Amino acid sequence: MPYIVNGTSYDFPAPQLANDTTFVPLDKVANTVGCYVTWDNLAKVATVELDEIKYRVMEDNPKVELPDGSMVELQASPYVEDGSMWVPVRFFEKILHCTISVDGDNVQVQRQF
């Protein structure tokens, strides 16, 4: 199993490596740490909601909009492939304050509740 989230194994699509950045499917991993993800196909924006706090993630834009309107820049731009938005795994550390570990195709994400 390539993903372990909060101690539980998940069989999601394998992480993708591009330009020294590991990408993971946003919706799949975010849902396992308690987020609700919606997709606006017209605007090409995913909204990640965690505990009533909303973050906006834009396709082909490394900046994530925080609830106060400020922006945080990821190391690479998210992209959409096969109906899922893929984000740098560090999104979960930088934006959602999770602990992450990547070892090849194995990704571990831990969120403190």
Structure report:
The two termini are 23 Å apart. Helix content is 11%, strand content 49%. It has helices at residues 26-32, 90-94, and strands at 3-5, 8-10, 16-18, 21-25, 36-40, 45-50, 53-58, 63-65, 71-73, 79-81, 84-88, 99-103, 106-110. It is globular and about 30 Å long. It has a single domain (3-110), classed as Copper Amine Oxidase, Chain A, domain 1 (2-Layer Sandwich), CATH 3.30.457. The strands form three sheets. A five-stranded antiparallel β-sheet has the order 5-6-7-8-9, with helices on one face. A four-stranded mixed β-sheet has the order 2-1-13-12. Strand 3 and strand 4 form a beta hairpin. It has two helices and 13 strands; from the N terminus they run E-E-E-E-H-E-E-E-E-E-E-E-H-E-E. By secondary structure, the protein is mainly beta.
